Amino acid sequence: MPAAFTIDVTPHTLRFIKPAGTSRGIMTTHKVWYICLTSTSIPYRQGWGECAPLPNLSVDDRPDYDALLRSFCQRFEKEKCIDWDALRPYPSIYVGFETAWSNYEGSGKIYQETPFSKGMSGIPINGLVWMGSYESMAQQVDNLLSRGFTCVKLKIGSLRFEDEWSLVRSIRKRFPASQVQLRVDANGAYTPTQAGEYLQRLAELDIHSIEQPIKAGQWSDMAALAASSPLPIALDEELIGIHDPQIRALLLDTIKPAFLVLKPSLHGGFEGCQAWIRLAEERQIGWWVTSALESNVGLSAIAHWCATLGNSLHQGLGTGSLYENNTETDLFIKGERLFVKPSDQEQTIPAQTGFLLNGHRYDWDSLQAAYPSDTCPKCQEMDALMAFLADWFQSSPTLNIYTSGTTGAPSRLIVQKSRMIYSARQTLRRFNLKPGDDCLLCLPLEFIAAKMMVVRALVGGLNLWIKQADGHPFKATNQSFRFVPLVPLQLFNSLQDPSERAALERCETILIGGAPLSPELEQAIQALNTPVIVSYGMAETLSHIALRRANGPEASNWYSPLPGIHVSLNPEGCLKVEAPMLCQRPVQTHDVAEIDATGRFRILGRLDNLINTGGKKILAETLESLLASYIRQPFAVTSQPDAKLSHRVVLVTEGPFDRSVLSTFNPAWMKPKAYVVVNSLPRTISGKLDRNALHQLVNVSGTL
């Protein structure tokens, strides 16, 4: 019976850290498409692939690429199979589906195990020198040689030939061919008239080979060059768009190249490259594999495939370090070899084993039969869980979730279940959670944090314990938990009661989300032995995308993004989050932030909470952190219109406040100019300070 699956498509624009000079001009961005196959019948089976056409080069680079890709996805979903013949004219789409399908069929593995996939051996790779000025190319060469590369490939054809020849000669003077192998790639930059002389001169420098000296499509001229040139010729662009086996054979028999440079995204996917390899080896033509500016999804697939081929030549692979907003990777370079960090296989739960809930194993049918019963008593939390699971186990690929309502009424989002599964696996890996680990769910299931905890338990085989979603999650419990997500109020309450604090200490990891930690609470948890991890995220990113340790020797107020997450600032200084595996498009927040050189960030406050007083601006959160050392009771700051200052700072406290404690507070312009006393600060249903309600309260009730 055909396999039923859904296919999700996500376009993503990669940004080069430095402009990349190519024969087709300077590239600053590269648009790719990720596809995710998710089974509708086998729990949590999915596979990711990448479609990465190169502008003005790929045979399938076309204006309607997005529509074409989506039409294939819709057709394959309907037919419950992939029509490989239909994809063959579109190599970048073909290889995307090859990767996704192999990953899907292998339950997370792309290809069979090899010493490379186990982290036992690396793939020899060449260093790459991009087109640029003489000085920049020379610097690139020096950098690569200092890192231990013995094979260097130079992109040539953008400068005067004499300048490029001088650069290659300077390298060869320092390093003979016995020490450093030099390859050059002309990308078709020479005319047939020029090429003969240029290749003769390059051959004087003991060059290993030259890729595509003249433009593709000039078979007779290329054949003449290959026959007469002392410099071995490698074909690259010449192979693009040739899918017919007979024409492939005719091409090789006509030109008789020394080498083929195989790029799956350009040359027919992995299947197409395998066909080229068979033809090449029948004719004693050498070959190696090169990536074509894919992101880490495609790079990883190409590297794992390449490792199965047993080719001892230096390959044109890397780690995707060209891009500032790449996806996560397990690839790394040591010396001149590409390695992969071996990781445990993704934990999935076979359909027949079901899931663990409160120490009992169920599948969806048996849980419906058991609830309510003595072993699974009725309660509000279980009602909510059953409602969520009913949605989760429906065949629909999407789910409705709601934002927290921090800046207004909660809004509905439609999200792909495949992305929730990806997010869950990220958390399972980050915290090394294993099947059977006891985890506590004590959060309201209307929020994404609780929904994602359920998905983590389903995907990772965790033993999920359901507790009342109130302010005392550790009340009357003797259990120990491996992982517990809490909101700050629950953490605060648990610290006040000795028995609850003892239960807190028995947990291995506490994950805090939903609201910021107050300075007082952050100080209080320093005495805890249990690691407290503060998360940053939102419904749009399907829970956390960055974490920071809040206690212990590794405590920091800087968040570290999870792998594959990129953050930047907009012109107003607000954080922008790119998480292509989690959300279809970048998320622009209103959180004013700082980003350090390593990519970590810290939140200063929300742009909505900026107070302009007397022509000077201060974030409410920043002012609250400065006031925290003076004020011991719960408080917050907001503003009121003021004829002189435009807005004046208002301090709101729970209960009476002695203003004299602020007599030494500086600078004076930040000092509150008005005061309001309330019984309790207004909060949202998720426990966050409701600043909209606070502002309204102050501007309606007046001040002291």
Could you tell me the CATH topology label of the largest domain. Answer: TIM Barrel
Terminal CA distance reads 75 Å
Helix content: 25-40%
What fraction strand?
Answer: 25-35%
Structural class: alpha/beta
> Which outline best applies?
globular
| Strand adjacency order, main sheet | 5-6-7-8-9-10-11
Estimated radius of gyration: 30 Å
CATH class of the largest domain: Alpha Beta
Task: Tell me the count of domains.
Answer: 4
Low-confidence stretches: 345-352
CATH superfamily of the largest domain: Enolase-like C-terminal domain
Q: What's the total number of strands?
A: 33
Q: Strand count, sense and closure of the main sheet? A: 7 strands, parallel
Arithmetic mean pLDDT: 92
Q: What is the count of DSSP helices, taking H or I runs of 4+ residues? A: 19
CATH architectural designation of the largest domain? Alpha-Beta Barrel
Give the key terms:
single chain; 704 residues; alpha/beta; Enolase-like, domain 1; TIM Barrel; Rossmann fold; 4 domains; 7-stranded parallel β-sheet; 5-stranded mixed β-sheet; 30% helix
Q: Could you give a short description of this structure?
A:
The chain has 704 residues and is an alpha/beta fold. It is built from 19 helices and 33 strands. The strands form nine sheets. Strands 5-6-7-8-9-10-11 form a seven-stranded parallel beta sheet, with helices on one face.
Topology (elements, then pairings):
Layout: E1 5-22, E2 25-39, E3 46-51, H1 65-79, H2 84-87, H3 91-105, E4 123-124, E5 127-129, H4 134-146, E6 151-155, H5 161-174, E7 181-185, H6 192-203, E8 209-211, H7 219-228, E9 233-235, H8 245-255, E10 259-262, H9 269-282, E11 286-289, H10 296-307, E12 331-334, E13 337-340, E14 355-357, E15 360-362, H11 364-370, H12 380-392, E16 398-402, E17 412-416, H13 417-430, E18 438-441, H14 448-460, E19 463-466, E20 484-486, H15 488-496, H16 498-506, E21 510-512, H17 519-524, E22 532-538, E23 543-549, E24 560-561, E25 566-569, E26 574-578, E27 587-595, E28 601-606, E29 610-613, E30 616-619, H18 620-627, E31 635-642, E32 646-654, E33 674-678, H19 691-701
Parallel strand pairs: 5-6, 6-7, 7-8, 8-9, 9-10, 10-11, 14-19, 18-19, 20-21, 21-22, 32-33
Antiparallel strand pairs: 1-2, 2-3, 4-13, 12-13, 14-15, 16-17, 22-23, 23-24, 25-26, 26-27, 27-28, 29-30, 31-32
Helix pairs in contact: 3-9, 4-5, 8-9, 13-14, 15-16
